[in-house]
Amino acid sequence: VCQTQTVEVQTGQEVTLPCKNISNTPTSTFFFRLVNGTKTSCISSMYAFNGKASFCPEFENGKFEMRSNVSTVFLTIKKVDLSDSGLYFCGFYINGQVLTNVIHLNVQEDPEGTHMTFWIMFGVTVAFFLVIIGLLVQMRKLHGGTISEMSVLICFGFLKDHTMFACLSLIYSIFIHVMLLKSFPKR
Description:
Layout: E1 3-10, E2 15-20, E3 28-35, E4 39-47, E5 54-55, E6 64-68, E7 72-77, E8 86-94, E9 97-108, H1 111-143, H2 147-158, H3 164-183
Parallel strand pairs: 1-9
Antiparallel strand pairs: 2-7, 3-4, 3-8, 4-5, 6-7, 8-9
Helix pairs in contact: 1-2, 2-3
């Protein structure tokens, strides 16, 4: 008897992998997972549904919890991350045979977390450009000249060669912006 199921969860959440208890007598129950498609890694084991779970060394970190009732054995994983994705096996040792259930855990990137990263990077980029524009305006006040001339001065005066492309892109975008402002009549 082998049952297969898929469980989906997002990063950072807690997930419980259920495994139907197929034995009506006290038996050894265990969880392990397939690592890199070739190697199995022991997670935990328990004798009888009311027994205490023991964890294999690399899983004694409090992130995993194994518990059971009469009908189901559960493996809970706290704060899942992408590396927790994979195949988990719940096994029962009954009358000299090992019977397993397979659970495919699919951990997906949290879209809210991705959104948060986007807005943080957007804010940093805006702040950076505001600082650059502020510097250009200050240099224009102190030294005269156009904003384009000042941006070239900043690029050649303060930046290294490997950032020249970014700086020239900034100059180009400032130039386009200034040209667009000049092409519209003032009200």
